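Folding Problem: From Residues to Backbone Shape
Fields: amino acid sequence; protein backbone structure tokens
RECORD BEGINS BELOW THIS LINE
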Amino acid sequence: MEKYDAIVVGAGAAGLFCAAQAGQMGRRILVVDNGKKPGRKILMSGGGRCNFTNLYVEPAAYLSANPHFCKSALARYTQWDFIDLVNQHGIAWHEKTLGQLFCDDSAQQIIDMLLDECRKGQVALRLRSEILEVSRDEDGFTLQLNGVTVGAERLVIASGGLSMPGLGATPFGYKVAEQFGLNVLPTRAGLVPFTLHKPQLEALQTLSGVSVPALIAAQDGTTFRENLLFTHRGLSGPAVLQISSYWKPGEWVTVNLLPDSDINTFLDAQRAQRPDQSLKNALATLLPKRLVEVLQALEQIPDLTLKQLNPRQQAQLADSLQRWQVQPNGTEGYRTAEVTLGGVDTHGLSSRTMEAQAVSGLYFIGEVVDVTGWLGGYNFQWAWSSAWACAQALAAE
């Protein structure tokens, strides 16, 4: 049987980074993954350019049943630490919007950096390896792979969540947690587009591809201000992806389609200048023409001239444009979700080491844990920070 100091399950962001760090601190590490290539989700991220962190990372940007859990790891390995590593590898990057950092060239650069760091730590990498069984005795953990048995004192689960099953996502990490008696919180798709009920979808389908700046609010009061994109299945875009993590089935979301405009002041000014102008044409200077036409067909915008629009109608119009109520039918699910909400309950883990409190030598890092960040590099930073915290623990004992 091959023996290691620690086995890391998952050759994604958290797994590779943890292995590299622990390897460079003298530990003999094996990374096991079921895929053909390491870092498959990294390669797909950020439109192929990997949104590897965010300048404004803070604990408030993370959802968890235990909201204080992420604070220690995020404080001990920050976005600035990871940016330093990226710079050391000569990877050019840029800020896109809202502190989101992307590679200038390709997400492959981040994968290559992680693999280079693993080589420095003499990390062994075993791909296309299905784990058939995990067991534990006084010597540590034993994994039965397809064709070989490996063992280690420590086992790190960095297998990710259920999002993007096409890239090999499985519930493996949750099953290991349950096998060893850890609580696993219910999971659901996060950072995911909304689908709409059929009548509304049919009315809005012609807007597929239209994008507008919007302020979107969940029923709990959480708001995000970014672009909203109409699709042939429903609603997407950064604002929708963000709010989807806070939405629950059956709830409504409220959309302000004109977050930068005082609609009443605008209409009053337009009426003074062009009283005979149609309301539709006036609004088309603020919103995409196709959207105005659809809203008029839905009778949310009356077919009137500005001088015909009375105060009551104007108030109703302002309300429908700036407090548009949408009740999603659901989401597109794990197939297109960027992350998985829920997962291994952090109440059973050490926030300093990521080790299971009741199972010595068993660690959980990255997306498999019940810590989910906002869109925009926050989830990658959780991968780096939780992996670093775990690696320090692996090397300290």
Notes: The longest strand covers residues 148-157. The mean pLDDT is 96.
